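so my prof wants the structure for this chain in the tokens format not the other one, which i didnt know existed until like an hour ago. anyway here's the sequence
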Amino acid sequence: YGGTGRTFDWDLAAGLADEFDDAADNAVAVLEIVREADGKDGFQVLIAGESSIAVEANEIDEADLQKGERIGVPIALLILLVLFGAVVAAVIPIVLAIIAIIVALGAAALVGQLFQLVFLVTVMITMIGLAVGIDYSLLILSRYREERRRGVEKMEAIARTGATAGRTVFFSGVTVVFALLGMLIIPASVYQSLAAGAILVVVAAVMASLTLLPASLSLLGDKVNSLRLSFIRARFEAQAGRTGGG
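here's what i got, hopefully its the right format
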């Protein structure tokens, strides 16, 4: 106790009732009590145990995930703006990725009713969802715009895009899923959760890219190039002219 200049270490052992998942839920309230008591009257109050460690690990993971989203999404949007030179075209891949993540999280919630999944599954879904969702939709959107620049009619451009870029997206997604299936046979819930999350979001991203994105393009048409950033467009056109002239 710091007030008397002496230090006493008291170790108290206590167990939370029920199974591990229930104990982890109960540990949230215990952690709040410990944090409120820590520092009062010169006492330093600490807690350790599987349940409390799991809760704090989840809190750290969630904070890191939110920080990554705040940094990663704006950077991805900036890169897409530079690449496409149009706001609408740049936003579409982000929206498709978010939709894939939401669908995968819903599917993971259903799977979690049957199998034990750790919190890291949400981290995996978000990270992989942003990556493959943007990548797949970027590939299809770029091919569609290329066909339209060649003068191909809208519906024909969508059909050609599906036959080329769409096929690439499909086989890419299938390859990723088969590669991740090996992690499911590892007898550890962490690896199985990571694999399940990645598989679910890849499947959701492929489905969104092959169905929702073409449907959106059929509605938008050339409006996909709306809100152009003229200075970026002029720079790319000038560079393309120099390349063609060389």
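also thought this was worth mentioning. DSSP finds seven helices and no strands in the chain.
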